[in-house]
Each structure stands twice: as structure tokens, then as C-alpha cells.
Amino acid sequence: QVKLVQSGGGLVQPGGSLRLSCEFSGYTVTAYTVGWFRQAAGKEREFVAGVSRIIGTADYADSVKGRFTFSIDTAKNTLDLQMNSLNPEDTAIYYCAASIRAYGSNSDQFDYWGQGTQVTVSS
């Protein structure tokens, strides 16, 4: 059974950086399409970044492109999201997720989810 356990997050000032990690267990991470999503208060969950198990390179939402970097450590079976130049609009609960599909950017396409971690960007 695939299990995702998140760490990181917290409070940061605008312009600052945070790193989120997600430990993937139960199978080899490269056999799954993996992604990061976020959900702000009162809003729907939205795609942040993802790596297709077929394509292998990261895809990003326009709102985070150039600021966020999604990396996979295959030796440790972990997913990392480096977030730079954070702004208040990035405030949300962030989730890592995994899918058996070849690609996905909608939350309903993902089968396994981390527990979520709060990221708050505020001065």
C-alpha cells in the first residue's frame, strides 16, 4: 500500500523560501505519477506541480512557474517542493499525491494523498 508522509511548511515572510518534503513508501516512486496540490481557505484544491511517470519531467502551474521546483530523490524515495519568492497568495494547505495514471493534473486523478501541511506567507 502506497503511503505518503509530509514534512516541512510553516510561517514565512513575503519573499522568503520554504521546502516541503514527502516520504513515499510502499512502492518505487518512479512507478507513479506524483504531484503537489494546494488548497487555500474557501477555494478548491489546485494543481501546483507534477511529474508524469511516463514523461519524467516536472510540469508547473503558471502561478508558481519560475519560483517553485519539484524534485524526486529516487534513492530516498522522497518528493521535494522548493518554494522561493513566496507571496501571500501562496498561503494554503499543501498536499503531495500519487497516481497510477500516466499523467494527471486534476485532484480526482490521484489515488494517494499525504496528510497536508500548512504554508502561511505573512509579514
Textual characterization of the structure:
By secondary structure, the protein is mainly beta. 0% of the residues lie in helices and 49% in strands. The chain has no helices and eleven strands. The strands form two sheets. Strands 2, 4, 5, 6, 9, 10 and 11 form a seven-stranded mixed β-sheet that branches. A four-stranded antiparallel β-sheet has the order 1-3-8-7, with no helix packed on it. A hairpin with a 6-residue loop joins β5 and β6. The protein is globular, with a radius of gyration of 13 Å.
Spans of at least 5 consecutive residues with low confidence: none
What structural class results from the helix and strand content? mainly beta
Radius of gyration: 13 Å
Number of helices: 0
Task: Give the averaged pLDDT, no decimals.
Answer: 95
β-strand percent reads: over 45%
Distance between the amino and carboxyl termini? 41 Å
In total, the number of strands is 11
Helicity range: under 10%
Please describe the biggest sheet, giving its number of strands, its sense, and whether it closes into a barrel: 7 strands, mixed
Order of helices and strands: EEEEEEEEEEE
